[in-house]
Specification:
By secondary structure, the chain is of the alpha+beta class. Helix content is about 30%, strand content about 20%.
């Protein structure tokens, strides 16, 4: 280990040992971005070369989606097919999840990150076996530059049952909220999300020319993890990122974001801002769906930047499929033809996730691990 690497590791450990996250730096009144967060010049230059566009990711209204066999549903499937093939991202409205449920989920995550640091420290951990934990950057010690982001993680990849008692109090019953007097905010949100993902998998199956229950039968929604991201105010957002450019190691990711915004998607070599739409859910096609669709659907690069005056909160739910016991996935046979030969080999979710998590977000695409 050279002296520069050794020095950086010491700074990373010192920061990690505070268990206070990026929010702790902001609360301490930091004015200059610590060196561990500053992006390498070549990365900044590459980003600037790409440029930005005023295009918007597709927004799809799901009103009438329950009328199976109707022209309305056929049109929704066509819109999802186009968005999944050309963008890898789209937003949906009229998805059926009550506004109050979504708002309470986002509010709970925000209040967790903004509560007293001594309470949060009880959850600070990098133990992969811990189901509920809080930390800064899962790849803190691997990335070229740390991201200006703290995350509350609820990992249900292999333990499919979530006990509400394992959750932080603010993510359960919000103080003084009659609506949640007998309900749990996070569990309520996940339950509604699972109903919606059933519909989404049907639509994605049909968009691939498959039977509506095809992706559901593959158990693409079985394992999941929820990430409650908090991007504190950033004094110099041009020097760092909220999250580095990456693709997601999932079948699909469902994201709700507050009104602040900051998410960008790479489309035709230009960054496109994912403008927050009230009550919308952002749908992101992940690596695993690109693989089993044999490149029909696209998992695309995205990133998030910081804000000088306002903190941002988002909640992402990653659907990984079956991790335990190991299940083998691969390109769907019906999608392999003479014109579209098999591009990827078979894999298990555990193997793919291990390879994905062993690298920093700014490394090469995880798809390369299973490409033939």
């Amino acid at each position: 280990m050279d002296s520069l690497t050794d020095d950086r590791t010491k700074h990373l450990k010192a920061f990690d040992d505070t268990k206070s996250g990026v929010k702790g730096l902001v609360d301490a009144g930091v004015v200059d971005i610590p060196s561990i967060f500053i992006r390498p010049p070549d990365e900044v230059a590459q980003d600037l070369e790409l440029g930005r566009t005023s295009l918007q990711v597709p927004a799809i209204d799901l009103h009438g989606v329950g009328d199976k066999g109707s022209l309305r549903r056929e049109n929704i499937v066509k819109e999802i097919k186009h968005a999944s093939e050309k963008w890898g991202f789209f937003q949906v409205v009229n998805h059926g999840i009550p506004v109050k449920v979504v708002e309470d989920m986002v509010k709970g995550v925000r209040e967790f990150h903004e509560q007293d640091v001594e309470v949060k420290k009880d959850y600070y951990s990098r133990d992969p076996q811990r189901m509920v934990k809080f930390n800064t950057n899962y790849d803190l010690y691997m990335s070229r530059a740390a991201n200006w982001r703290d995350t509350l993680i609820i990992d249900m990849s292999s333990k499919y049952h979530l006990d509400p008692q394992d959750l932080p109090l603010v993510c359960r019953c919000l103080a003084g909220d009659f609506y949640l007097a007998s309900k749990d905010a996070t569990v309520e949100y996940i339950n509604h999300l699972m109903k919606f993902v059933d519909t989404l998998l049907e639509l994605l199956s049909e968009a691939l020319g498959l039977e509506p229950n095809y992706l559901k039968m593959l158990e693409c929604d079985k394992g999941k993890s929820l990430a409650g991201h908090y991007y504190p105010t950033c004094p110099k957002p041009d020097q760092t990122l909220g999250i580095s450019k990456h693709t997601n190691a999932s079948f699909v990711t469902l994201l709700v974001q507050d009104e602040i915004g900051g998410l960008e998607v790479l489309h035709q070599n230009q960054w496109v801002n994912v403008e927050p739409i009230p009550e919308a859910i952002v749908v992101n096609i992940g690596d695993l769906l690109q693989i089993i669709s044999n490149d029909r659907f696209k998992s695309v690069t995205h990133q998030a930047f910081g804000n000088v005056t306002q903190a941002r909160t988002s909640v992402a739910c990653f659907f990984h499929g079956v991790a335990t016991p190991p299940k083998t996935y691969g390109p769907i046979e019906k999608l392999i033809t003479k014109e579209s030969p098999q591009i990827y080999r078979e894999f298990t979710v555990v193997d793919y996730m291990m390879k994905f998590s062993s690298r920093g977000l700014d490394e090469k695409l995880g798809l390369n691990y299973v490409r033939i």
